[in-house]
Each structure stands twice: as C-alpha cells, then as structure tokens.
Amino acid sequence: MKDLIGGVPGFASYAAFRSGEGGMTVTVCQDKAGTDESSRRAAEWVKDNISTDVSPPAITEGDTVLAF
Predict the structure, then answer these.
(1) What is the pLDDT of residue 37?
(2) Is 60 a domain residue?
(3) pLDDT recorded at residue 19
(4) How far apart are the two ends of the chain, measured CA to CA in Å?
(5) Does some domain include residue 63?
(6) pLDDT of residue 28
(7) pLDDT < 50 positions in the chain
(8) Cα dist from 6 to 9, 19, 43, 64, 68, whole Å
(9) How far apart are CA 65 and CA 46, in angstroms?
(10) Using an 8 Å Cβ cutoff, are 1 and 14 in contact?
(11) What pLDDT, on the 0 to 100 scale, is given for residue 38?
(12) Is residue 32 part of a domain?
C-alpha cells in the first residue's frame, strides 16, 4: 500500500486495523483531492487483487477535530 498511495499528492498517513468482523483502513491526506485519489487507487487494487467475495467498502469522510 505504501507504494500504491504513498505518492498521492497531500498524502499524510495510512493505517489498517483488523477486527473480528473484518477490518478497516484510515487514510489521512491534506485535502479532499488526496483522499479521493487514494480511495480510487485502493479500489482499483482491491478489484485487481482480492476475490469477488469482498463486500464493497463503506467510505466515511470527515475533518480532523482533534489531533495530538
């Protein structure tokens, strides 16, 4: 994933989490254009590399309200 989305303009960070029901990822970019491009690249990668049994991702967007 680092090579896939690390070069997106405005990219700041990426984290992946696993849970009992599946998992989630969090991508942080400096602007919406960066998050849109990273989502597009990730969706393309999933389409090319993951079986068709995977549910489509739910994308939630928002602004940072607290960071430390």
Answers:
(1) 96
(2) no
(3) 86
(4) 25
(5) no
(6) 93
(7) none
(8) 8, 24, 15, 20, 22
(9) 30
(10) yes
(11) 94
(12) yes
